[in-house]
Amino acid sequence: xxxxxxxxxxxxxxxxxxxxxxxxxxxxxxxxxxxxxxxxxxxxxxxxxxxxxxxxxxxxxxxxxxxxxxxxxxxxxxxxxxxxxxxxxxxxxxxxxxxxxxxxxxxxxxxxxxxxxxxxxxxxxxxxxxxxxxxxxxxxxxxxxxxxxxxxxxxxxxxxxxxxxxxxxxxxxxxxxxxxxxxxxxxxxxxxxxxxxxxxxxxxxxxxxxxxxxxxxxxxxxxxxxxxxxxxxxxxxxxxxxxxxxxxxxxxxxxxxxxxxxxxxxxxxxxxxxxxxxxxxxxxxxxxxxxxxxxxxxxxxxxxxxxxxxxxxxxxxxxxxxxxxxxxxx
Length: 330
Description:
The chain is an alpha+beta fold. It has 3 domains: 6-68, Winged helix-like DNA-binding domain superfamily/Winged helix DNA-binding domain (Arc Repressor Mutant, subunit A, Orthogonal Bundle), CATH 1.10.10; 81-222, no CATH class; 238-318, Alpha-Beta Plaits. Helices cover 44% and strands 24% of the residues. The chain has 12 helices and 12 strands. It has helices spanning 6-22, 28-35, 39-52, 81-95, 100-116, 119-130, 144-156, 225-236, 250-254, 281-289, 301-319, 326-329, and strands at residues 56-58, 66-68, 132-134, 158-166, 169-182, 187-193, 198-203, 208-216, 240-246, 263-267, 271-278, 295-299. A hairpin with a 2-residue loop joins strand 4 (158-166) and strand 5 (169-182). Helix 1 packs across helix 3 (39-52). Residues 96-104 have low confidence and may be disordered.
């Protein structure tokens, strides 16, 4: 019985692998019948799988046959382009998840996946894993095609274009893309805006008509992507910004404030610096006050004056209620 050409052999070996994954043990004659080949061809195909790194065990006697075992190393994965993209994007969502250990595991999985994928598929995963950073979760659904386009542009160092809202208008933006960054709710692109001659962050979900150009650029000295985007989300987008020195560790305060609401910087000892923004500075002041830690206003100076004003009002409000005499308490 003819084994067919090379393509037919590859398809048959993949079918054999699928059969071995479906059931615990197959006898040689059973596999030969399912594949439409001779038992000798089955033995050859089993050797091909072993060469690829799949541990296929063979046993004799009653109940014996071929069995796919657990290997110490992941063998080369056989995925088509669509499967590679879907797998990589799913891992990227995990890398930006709310659970830190899960995010680390997803990033490690991306690195391993890139290493074991066939050569023609590796660049797809590398484009995503190399162009994405995270400062908190990352769960907002976005078009995988847009992510791939932007990730490739980051990797290949080519300009990108997209339509983006600016006030009541939608304008075409031309940028040098640097990194994709995942927040707890959205994806952002950190890029150098060529028309504004400065670094900008863009929400991916607001982009339309996204395309990568063929014009290459030489990368500029860039700010830390995750830090830049987080500071923009938590502070720069607001008309007022404030800095506080909080008498508590950075880990303690980070557990109390969402990453999208404030930037928490570690300081010596049990101290940290909190940077946040709002449309009303009183709102920022109240949020820091409600953390329950001692704190000092670093910037702006007028906020320190506001603290004194509000303190006087609070004291006056408390003084309006006469203290209960000790005799009445008893």
